[in-house]
Amino acid sequence: MPFEKGKSGNPKGRSKGAVNKSTTEFKDALNRLLEDSAPKMTQWLEDIAQDDPTKAFDILSKFAEYIHPKLSRSDVNLDATVKTVSDKLADMDEPD
Q: What is the rounded distance in angstroms from the CA atom of residue 24 to the CA atom of residue 30?
């Protein structure tokens, strides 16, 4: 029973949120590599820092972004008038 041209064997497709098997396997392999290398990373950074402290700091800051991502910039627009304490006191002295 061959499939008709243009029709899938699974018309509903992959369910929402289903993870790609290849992606999961790659992430697992990368995690194992990082876990196995973690004890050596401190020594690697120290070796790099001896020759080039700036480079070591740059590498460390790049790793830090995965632990503590950069905060996004927020624009604040204040249209309200800000009164100083002396302005408020002057308003209190004015008669109603």
A: 10
